[in-house]
Amino acid sequence: MVFVHDWDAVAEGFVPALITYRASPSLYIPENSEWLRDHIKGSQLAAFNGGHIHFLQDPDHFNQVVMDFIG
What we know:
The chain has 3 helices and 2 strands, in the order E-H-E-H-H. It has helices at residues 30-39, 54-57, 59-70, and strands at residues 18-22, 44-48. The protein has a two-stranded parallel ribbon with strand order 1-2. Helix 1 links the parallel strand 1 (18-22) and strand 2 (44-48). The longest helix has 12 residues, at 59-70.
């Protein structure tokens, strides 16, 4: 997890990112991921069912999303 203290710096100098998050309701606020996607140039957002380990819970979907992102 990355903690950003200067949100203006997010859009400067960052490389494109694949931002993943839990689709089902939780303590997490999806708008945070949407904000990151909107402010990091070339970034993409992908929602997953499951919890923190969606790459293990749904590996086929996760791998496909990653492959699509890296091209």
